[in-house]
């Protein structure tokens, strides 16, 4: 078993990673603690019984709430549905909401936990690769509005995160790639050795790889929980990537968008001598090994730039870009002209 500690003062918690943990865990529960386990239909069909059985063995009293799967159901109405289920089950301040599933479920369940009775206990059991290495760690919770993704939410940390890598056996391949884009991202932004290990293993995902990503994210989050500065490095590839996801009408997945965005950011670094061509090639080769694209066809570069300006992460009308300066290190740049950004985008468009 691997334990990664998220250090956040009196809100610190453990991230536990162990294959098979869902068959054996006994999370310590105050006597007869009420829990609402939230899962989408796909995950519930496979893992809900197991989790409620473990909770019952731990002395808890579990209730369940099933969500419709998919980003289009990541709505305020879904959050209300969770809160109402909590109220109907009689959950009170000391009770617990359990998010069992991918990032959509975790974000919704966490947001409900943050606002139900002004905040109750929250436990994350991520089941997608992306949720294991990214969304379940760090306390960002929320939902989408018709006006844009993740426009509402709260920073709300769980009491614990429990990861069973065995559940990845049932995860569709396309979903696995979304997680891989974030895994490669960690290597490029902050850990050369990890990047080189991924190259050597041909991007093989092991429990150690998952644990290491949690460790890296925990390090960034504990230094800057609410994204005043350093946490922004996690957006590497995302400003370009979100724009491309949006323009494709979400036909391109988040992982594909981020990978193409990493391709564009890398090209920008090479063009401006922030790093060298060989480093750009190493990043792109690893993306390719993981089955991810780093170029895109069918879009006008000008439209991609315009969509980037719609991203909520722009500061004072200027785009802040996270660009690599070597494999394992990125910096934030605010002063590139639109023309320069456009040139980099163009060089990655077919
Ligand atoms: N909070 C954060 O810091 C943060 C970070 C990154 C992304 N996110 C959010 O995460 C969401 C994306 O998460 P996601 O990619 O996990 O999407 P998701 O939750 O929609 O899960 C993807 C699909 O895989 C299925 N699934 C999950 N685990 C499975 C398993 N073990 N076996 C079979 N099927 C399984 C789900 O039912 C779903 O259909 C987005 O809404 C994004 O905004 C949040
Ligand atoms: Zn992402």
The CA-CA distance between the termini, in Å, is: 45 Å
Choose one word for the global shape.
Answer: globular
* CATH homologous superfamily grouping of the largest domain: Dehydroquinate synthase-like - alpha domain
Can you tell me the CATH architecture of the largest domain?
Answer: Up-down Bundle
Question: Secondary-structure map with pairings?
Answer:
Blueprint: E1 2-6, E2 13-17, H1 21-24, E3 34-40, H2 41-57, E4 61-67, H3 76-88, E5 96-101, H4 103-115, E6 121-126, H5 129-135, E7 140-145, E8 148-155, E9 160-163, H6 173-190, H7 192-201, H8 207-223, H9 238-247, H10 254-271, H11 277-289, H12 301-309, E10 321-326, E11 329-333, H13 338-347
Parallel strand pairs: 2-9, 3-4, 3-5, 5-6, 6-9
Antiparallel strand pairs: 1-2, 7-8, 10-11
Helix pairs in contact: 3-4, 5-6, 5-8, 6-7, 6-10, 9-10, 9-12, 10-11, 10-13, 12-13
Give an account of the 3D structure.
By secondary structure, the protein is of the alpha/beta class. The chain has two domains: 2-170, 3-Layer(aba) Sandwich (Rossmann fold); 173-347, Dehydroquinate synthase-like - alpha domain (Dehydroquinate synthase-like, alpha domain, Up-down Bundle). It has helices spanning 21-24, 41-57, 76-88, 103-115, 129-135, 173-190, 192-201, 207-223, 238-247, 254-271, 277-289, 301-309, 338-347, and strands at 2-6, 13-17, 34-40, 61-67, 96-101, 121-126, 140-145, 148-155, 160-163, 321-326, 329-333. It starts with a strand and ends with a helix. 49% of the residues are buried. It binds nicotinamide-adenine-dinucleotide and zinc ion (ZN). Zinc ion binds at residues 182, 238, 254, 258.
């Amino acid at each position: 078993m691997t334990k990664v500690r998220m250090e956040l003062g009196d809100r610190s918690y453990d991230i536990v990673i162990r294959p098979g943990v869902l068959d054996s865990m006994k999370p310590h529960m105050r006597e007869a603690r009420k829990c609402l386990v939230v899962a989408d239909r796909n995950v519930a069909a496979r893992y809900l019984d197991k989790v409620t059985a473990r909770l019952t063995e731990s002395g808890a009293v579990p209730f369940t709430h099933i969500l419709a799967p998919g980003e289009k159901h990541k709505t305020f109405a879904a959050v209300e549905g969770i809160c109402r289920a909590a109220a109907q089950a009689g959950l009170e301040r000391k009770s617990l909401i359990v998010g069992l599933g991918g990032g959509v479920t975790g974000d919704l369940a966490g947001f409900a936990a943050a606002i139900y009775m002004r905040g109750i206990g929250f436990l994350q059991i991520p089941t997608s690769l992306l949720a294991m290495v990214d969304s379940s760690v760090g306390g960002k919770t929320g939902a989408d509005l018709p006006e844009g993704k993740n426009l509402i939410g709260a920073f709300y940390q769980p009491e614990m995160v429990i990861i069973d890598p065995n559940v990845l056996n049932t995860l569709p391949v396309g979903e696995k790639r979304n997680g891989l884009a974030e895994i490669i991202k960690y290597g490029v932004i902050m850990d050369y050795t990890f990047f080189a290990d991924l190259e050597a293993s041909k991007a093989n995902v092991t429990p150690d790889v998952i644990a290491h990503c949690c460790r890296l994210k925990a390090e960034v989050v504990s230094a800057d929980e609410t994204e005043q500065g350093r946490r922004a490095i996690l957006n590497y590839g995302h400003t370009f990537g979100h724009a491309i996801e949006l323009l494709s009408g979400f036909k391109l997945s988040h992982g594909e968008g981020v990978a193409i965005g990493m391709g564009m950011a890398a090209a920008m670094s090479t063009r401006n001598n922030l790093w060298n061509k060989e480093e750009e090639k190493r990043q792109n080769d690893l993306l390719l090994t993981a089955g991810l694209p780093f170029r895109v066809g069918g879009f006008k570069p000008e439209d991609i730039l315009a969509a980037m300006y719609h991203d909520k992460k722009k500061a004072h009308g200027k785009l802040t870009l996270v660009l690599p300066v070597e494999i394992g290190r990125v910096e934030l740049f605010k002063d590139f002209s639109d023309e320069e950004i456009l040139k980099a985008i163009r060089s990655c468009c077919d």
